Amino acid sequence: MRRDDATLVLKNGLVVACFAREAEGFGHAVVSAYSDIAKTGGIIERFEPDFLVSQTEIAARTKLSRAAISLYVSGERGSGFPPPHARITSSSPLWDWVEVSSWMHKHAQLSLEEVVNARLSRAINWFVQNPLKAMKATDRDLWEIFEGAAREPFL
Questions:
Q1: Under a CB-based contact definition with an 8 Å cutoff, are residues 122 and 135 in contact?
Q2: Is-contact 36 19, C-beta < 8 A?
């Protein structure tokens, strides 16, 4: 099948493939895009949307204001917001989008579909950052990883 839904751009010194793929769902789009890039011999180093997010990115993904996110993070609005996972001693810490999206879903701020998509994004990044697995992988292998990510218990 011929596909012409990818655009290659040079961003921050890297070649980035941007897709506008129509598929049955997010997971199908990701697997077929991964497959198409792998067939070219291209090396996939990272998949976006990333699962590590700043407060600004959390606001954008949830369509809430940065001020609202700041109140969640500080505990002034609701309790139990997940702690950051990276750059925790800096002025711009990063949160795990899977944990944040799950928390937001529990507080009626985000759909379950967004939580599943967050898990899929984290799973594909784990996969591409493990080159021994990625080099030998088939589409079926990728689907097994995705199915496992989607089946994780929802807290």
A1: no
A2: no
Answer for the pair 18, 111: CB distance below 8 angstroms, yes or no. no
Question: How confident is the model over 45-80, as pLDDT tens digits?
Answer: 888 878 889 999 999 999 999 999 999 999 999 899
Beta-bridge mates of residue 93: none
Q: Which amino acid is at 56?
A: T
Instruction: Tell which residue, 154, 129, 153, 124, has the closest CA to residue 141.
Output: 124
pTM of the model: 0.74
Backbone φ and ψ for 11, nearest 5 degrees, come out as: -135, 125
Q: Both tokens of residue 45?
A: 């180093």
Strands annotated E in the chain: 6-11, 14-19, 52-53, 95-96
97 closest CA partner among 65, 60, 133, 130: 60
- Sequence-distant (6+) residues with CB within 8 A of 140 are none
Give the relative orientation of helices 139-151 and 112-128 as an angle to the nearest 10 degrees.
Answer: 140
pLDDT range class, residue 148, cuts 50, 70, 90: low
Q: Residue holding tokens 């040079």?
A: 10
